[in-house]
Amino acid sequence: MINALAIDTEEWFHSELLGGQRPPIFQVCEATQQVLDLLDRQQVKASFFIVGEVAERYPDLVRKIIERGHEIGCHGFSHHPLWKLDEDLFREEMKRFHKVMKDILARDRIKGFRAPCFSIDHRTTWALKVLVDFGYRYDASVFPVKLNPHYGVRGAPLRPYRISLKDVRKEDPASPLIEFPTVPLRLWKLKIPLAGGFYLRLFPVSFLEWGLRRINRDQPFLLYFHPWEGFSETPRLNLPRINRFISYYGIGTALKKLEYLLSYFNFSRVDHVLGLI
Known about the structure:
The chain is built from 10 helices and 11 strands. The protein has one domain: Alpha-Beta Barrel (TIM Barrel), CATH 3.20.20. Helix content is 36%, strand content 13%.
Protein backbone atom coordinates (compact mmCIF):
# COMPACT_ATOMS: atom_id res chain seq x y z
CA MET A 1 0.00 0.00 0.00
CA ILE A 2 1.45 3.37 -1.05
CA ASN A 3 0.31 6.36 1.01
CA ALA A 4 0.46 10.04 0.14
CA LEU A 5 2.72 12.53 1.94
CA ALA A 6 1.80 16.23 1.92
CA ILE A 7 4.15 18.91 3.27
CA ASP A 8 2.22 22.14 3.87
CA THR A 9 5.02 24.62 3.27
CA GLU A 10 4.21 27.79 5.16
CA GLU A 11 5.69 30.13 7.74
CA TRP A 12 5.06 29.41 11.42
CA PHE A 13 2.95 32.56 11.67
CA HIS A 14 0.49 31.48 8.98
CA SER A 15 -1.47 29.45 11.55
CA GLU A 16 -4.97 30.80 12.18
CA LEU A 17 -4.51 30.04 15.89
CA LEU A 18 -2.08 32.95 16.16
CA GLY A 19 -4.88 35.41 15.51
CA GLY A 20 -3.15 37.20 12.65
CA GLN A 21 0.07 37.97 14.55
CA ARG A 22 2.96 38.08 12.07
CA PRO A 23 6.23 38.91 13.82
CA PRO A 24 9.05 39.50 11.28
CA ILE A 25 10.79 36.19 11.95
CA PHE A 26 11.11 34.09 8.80
CA GLN A 27 12.14 30.46 9.24
CA VAL A 28 10.45 28.47 6.50
CA CYS A 29 13.67 27.75 4.58
CA GLU A 30 15.50 26.34 7.60
CA ALA A 31 12.47 24.38 8.76
CA THR A 32 11.79 22.97 5.29
CA GLN A 33 15.47 22.05 4.83
CA GLN A 34 15.14 19.68 7.80
CA VAL A 35 12.22 17.96 6.10
CA LEU A 36 14.01 17.77 2.73
CA ASP A 37 17.05 16.18 4.38
CA LEU A 38 14.86 13.67 6.17
CA LEU A 39 13.09 12.71 2.95
CA ASP A 40 16.46 12.27 1.24
CA ARG A 41 17.64 9.95 4.00
CA GLN A 42 14.44 7.90 3.79
CA GLN A 43 14.39 8.04 -0.04
CA VAL A 44 10.79 9.31 -0.02
CA LYS A 45 9.18 11.74 -2.46
CA ALA A 46 6.40 14.04 -1.27
CA SER A 47 4.02 16.77 -2.43
CA PHE A 48 4.96 20.22 -1.11
CA PHE A 49 1.89 22.45 -0.99
CA ILE A 50 3.49 25.86 -0.83
CA VAL A 51 1.97 29.21 0.11
CA GLY A 52 2.36 31.67 -2.77
CA GLU A 53 3.89 34.47 -0.70
CA VAL A 54 6.49 32.00 0.59
CA ALA A 55 7.35 30.99 -2.98
CA GLU A 56 7.54 34.66 -4.00
CA ARG A 57 9.97 35.45 -1.15
CA TYR A 58 12.06 32.28 -1.55
CA PRO A 59 12.08 31.13 -5.20
CA ASP A 60 15.23 29.07 -4.62
CA LEU A 61 13.32 26.98 -2.08
CA VAL A 62 10.80 26.05 -4.78
CA ARG A 63 13.61 25.15 -7.18
CA LYS A 64 15.31 23.02 -4.53
CA ILE A 65 12.08 21.08 -3.89
CA ILE A 66 11.63 20.41 -7.62
CA GLU A 67 15.29 19.42 -8.09
CA ARG A 68 14.91 16.74 -5.43
CA GLY A 69 12.03 15.13 -7.30
CA HIS A 70 9.10 16.32 -5.20
CA GLU A 71 5.78 17.68 -6.42
CA ILE A 72 4.83 21.34 -6.02
CA GLY A 73 1.18 22.02 -5.13
CA CYS A 74 -0.76 25.13 -4.17
CA HIS A 75 -1.60 26.07 -0.57
CA GLY A 76 -3.17 29.38 -1.51
CA PHE A 77 -1.32 32.66 -1.96
CA SER A 78 -1.84 34.36 1.40
CA HIS A 79 -2.87 31.31 3.46
CA HIS A 80 -6.26 32.88 4.14
CA PRO A 81 -8.93 30.20 4.66
CA LEU A 82 -11.41 30.21 1.80
CA TRP A 83 -14.24 31.25 4.11
CA LYS A 84 -12.41 34.60 4.45
CA LEU A 85 -12.45 35.04 0.66
CA ASP A 86 -15.07 34.98 -2.05
CA GLU A 87 -14.87 33.59 -5.56
CA ASP A 88 -13.40 36.77 -7.09
CA LEU A 89 -10.75 37.15 -4.39
CA PHE A 90 -9.84 33.48 -4.67
CA ARG A 91 -9.40 33.82 -8.43
CA GLU A 92 -7.10 36.76 -7.86
CA GLU A 93 -5.07 34.76 -5.35
CA MET A 94 -4.78 31.88 -7.81
CA LYS A 95 -3.67 34.22 -10.59
CA ARG A 96 -0.94 35.61 -8.33
CA PHE A 97 0.16 32.12 -7.32
CA HIS A 98 0.46 30.93 -10.90
CA LYS A 99 2.31 34.03 -12.01
CA VAL A 100 4.86 33.47 -9.24
CA MET A 101 5.26 29.82 -10.25
CA LYS A 102 5.66 30.68 -13.91
CA ASP A 103 8.35 33.24 -13.04
CA ILE A 104 10.22 30.65 -10.95
CA LEU A 105 9.78 27.51 -13.04
CA ALA A 106 9.01 28.95 -16.50
CA ARG A 107 5.80 26.93 -16.26
CA ASP A 108 2.82 26.80 -13.95
CA ARG A 109 1.31 23.37 -14.41
CA ILE A 110 0.26 22.64 -10.86
CA LYS A 111 -1.96 19.59 -10.38
CA GLY A 112 -2.89 19.71 -6.71
CA PHE A 113 -4.43 22.11 -4.20
CA ARG A 114 -4.73 22.05 -0.40
CA ALA A 115 -6.88 24.76 1.11
CA PRO A 116 -5.54 26.41 4.27
CA CYS A 117 -7.37 25.14 7.38
CA PHE A 118 -9.25 22.44 5.43
CA SER A 119 -11.49 25.27 4.24
CA ILE A 120 -13.21 23.53 1.34
CA ASP A 121 -16.58 22.59 2.77
CA HIS A 122 -20.28 23.30 2.20
CA ARG A 123 -19.62 27.07 2.53
CA THR A 124 -16.97 27.19 -0.18
CA THR A 125 -18.08 24.79 -2.92
CA TRP A 126 -17.61 27.69 -5.37
CA ALA A 127 -13.86 27.14 -5.01
CA LEU A 128 -14.04 23.75 -6.74
CA LYS A 129 -15.07 25.31 -10.05
CA VAL A 130 -12.22 27.81 -9.73
CA LEU A 131 -9.78 24.92 -9.32
CA VAL A 132 -11.17 23.24 -12.42
CA ASP A 133 -10.90 26.50 -14.38
CA PHE A 134 -7.21 26.72 -13.42
CA GLY A 135 -6.59 23.16 -14.60
CA TYR A 136 -6.22 21.42 -11.25
CA ARG A 137 -6.64 17.68 -11.26
CA TYR A 138 -7.00 16.97 -7.57
CA ASP A 139 -7.80 18.60 -4.25
CA ALA A 140 -6.68 17.45 -0.79
CA SER A 141 -8.67 19.76 1.47
CA VAL A 142 -11.68 17.87 2.80
CA PHE A 143 -11.55 16.87 6.48
CA PRO A 144 -14.37 14.31 6.83
CA VAL A 145 -14.69 14.62 10.61
CA LYS A 146 -16.43 17.45 12.47
CA LEU A 147 -14.48 18.00 15.70
CA ASN A 148 -13.61 21.65 15.21
CA PRO A 149 -16.07 24.56 14.81
CA HIS A 150 -13.92 26.00 12.02
CA TYR A 151 -13.53 23.00 9.73
CA GLY A 152 -14.78 19.50 9.03
CA VAL A 153 -17.42 17.96 6.74
CA ARG A 154 -19.79 15.39 8.19
CA GLY A 155 -20.81 12.72 5.72
CA ALA A 156 -17.95 13.18 3.25
CA PRO A 157 -16.41 10.01 1.79
CA LEU A 158 -13.47 8.56 3.71
CA ARG A 159 -11.41 7.55 0.69
CA PRO A 160 -10.31 9.29 -2.56
CA TYR A 161 -13.27 10.09 -4.80
CA ARG A 162 -14.34 12.27 -7.72
CA ILE A 163 -15.89 15.18 -5.91
CA SER A 164 -19.15 16.80 -6.94
CA LEU A 165 -18.66 20.46 -7.78
CA LYS A 166 -21.98 21.18 -6.10
CA ASP A 167 -21.73 19.17 -2.88
CA VAL A 168 -18.39 18.16 -1.35
CA ARG A 169 -20.07 15.22 0.41
CA LYS A 170 -21.10 13.58 -2.85
CA GLU A 171 -19.22 11.60 -5.43
CA ASP A 172 -19.65 12.43 -9.13
CA PRO A 173 -18.01 10.00 -11.57
CA ALA A 174 -18.06 12.73 -14.24
CA SER A 175 -16.21 15.27 -12.10
CA PRO A 176 -12.81 16.39 -13.44
CA LEU A 177 -11.49 16.77 -9.88
CA ILE A 178 -10.34 13.99 -7.54
CA GLU A 179 -10.58 14.59 -3.81
CA PHE A 180 -8.09 12.96 -1.40
CA PRO A 181 -9.59 13.56 2.06
CA THR A 182 -7.69 13.35 5.32
CA VAL A 183 -8.71 9.81 6.21
CA PRO A 184 -9.56 9.18 9.90
CA LEU A 185 -9.21 5.99 11.88
CA ARG A 186 -12.58 4.29 12.25
CA LEU A 187 -13.13 2.54 15.59
CA TRP A 188 -16.69 1.36 16.04
CA LYS A 189 -18.72 4.57 15.66
CA LEU A 190 -15.73 6.83 16.26
CA LYS A 191 -13.74 8.63 13.58
CA ILE A 192 -10.37 9.64 14.97
CA PRO A 193 -8.10 11.98 12.96
CA LEU A 194 -4.45 11.08 13.40
CA ALA A 195 -2.75 11.48 10.00
CA GLY A 196 -0.80 14.66 10.57
CA GLY A 197 -0.60 18.13 12.06
CA PHE A 198 -1.62 18.52 15.71
CA TYR A 199 -2.93 14.95 15.76
CA LEU A 200 0.52 13.60 14.87
CA ARG A 201 2.04 15.71 17.65
CA LEU A 202 -0.67 14.72 20.16
CA PHE A 203 -0.74 10.93 19.91
CA PRO A 204 2.12 8.59 20.88
CA VAL A 205 3.90 7.07 17.92
CA SER A 206 2.78 3.55 18.90
CA PHE A 207 -0.88 4.60 18.55
CA LEU A 208 -0.15 6.40 15.27
CA GLU A 209 1.48 3.28 13.85
CA TRP A 210 -1.34 1.03 15.01
CA GLY A 211 -4.08 3.32 13.70
CA LEU A 212 -2.48 4.01 10.34
CA ARG A 213 -1.82 0.32 9.89
CA ARG A 214 -5.55 -0.35 10.41
CA ILE A 215 -6.40 2.24 7.74
CA ASN A 216 -3.92 0.55 5.40
CA ARG A 217 -5.79 -2.72 5.61
CA ASP A 218 -8.00 -1.61 2.75
CA GLN A 219 -6.97 1.88 1.60
CA PRO A 220 -4.18 4.46 1.51
CA PHE A 221 -4.09 7.52 3.74
CA LEU A 222 -2.70 11.02 3.30
CA LEU A 223 -0.25 12.13 5.98
CA TYR A 224 0.39 15.87 6.25
CA PHE A 225 3.13 17.81 8.04
CA HIS A 226 4.08 21.47 8.48
CA PRO A 227 7.85 22.14 8.57
CA TRP A 228 7.45 24.51 11.55
CA GLU A 229 5.95 21.65 13.57
CA GLY A 230 9.32 19.91 13.68
CA PHE A 231 11.54 22.98 14.06
CA SER A 232 12.93 23.58 17.53
CA GLU A 233 13.28 27.34 16.99
CA THR A 234 9.61 27.96 16.15
CA PRO A 235 8.74 31.05 18.24
CA ARG A 236 6.27 30.69 21.09
CA LEU A 237 3.78 33.52 21.34
CA ASN A 238 1.61 34.41 24.29
CA LEU A 239 -1.67 32.83 23.17
CA PRO A 240 -4.88 31.72 24.87
CA ARG A 241 -4.25 28.41 26.64
CA ILE A 242 -6.02 26.10 24.16
CA ASN A 243 -4.47 27.83 21.13
CA ARG A 244 -1.05 27.61 22.72
CA PHE A 245 -1.49 23.91 23.45
CA ILE A 246 -2.63 23.08 19.91
CA SER A 247 0.07 25.24 18.34
CA TYR A 248 3.10 24.08 20.30
CA TYR A 249 2.45 20.74 21.97
CA GLY A 250 4.80 18.03 20.71
CA ILE A 251 7.02 20.17 18.48
CA GLY A 252 10.11 18.68 20.10
CA THR A 253 9.24 15.12 19.01
CA ALA A 254 7.28 15.71 15.78
CA LEU A 255 10.19 15.28 13.37
CA LYS A 256 11.23 12.02 15.06
CA LYS A 257 7.66 10.75 14.79
CA LEU A 258 7.60 11.63 11.11
CA GLU A 259 10.91 9.86 10.59
CA TYR A 260 9.59 6.72 12.25
CA LEU A 261 6.41 6.70 10.14
CA LEU A 262 8.44 7.22 6.96
CA SER A 263 10.52 4.17 7.83
CA TYR A 264 7.49 2.02 8.70
CA PHE A 265 5.01 2.90 5.91
CA ASN A 266 5.39 3.40 2.17
CA PHE A 267 4.88 6.97 0.95
CA SER A 268 4.99 8.89 -2.31
CA ARG A 269 3.77 12.10 -3.93
CA VAL A 270 0.03 12.67 -3.94
CA ASP A 271 -0.13 12.84 -7.73
CA HIS A 272 1.66 9.49 -8.00
CA VAL A 273 -0.63 7.80 -5.47
CA LEU A 274 -3.64 9.02 -7.45
CA GLY A 275 -2.11 7.88 -10.75
CA LEU A 276 -1.88 11.42 -12.13
CA ILE A 277 1.64 11.10 -13.52
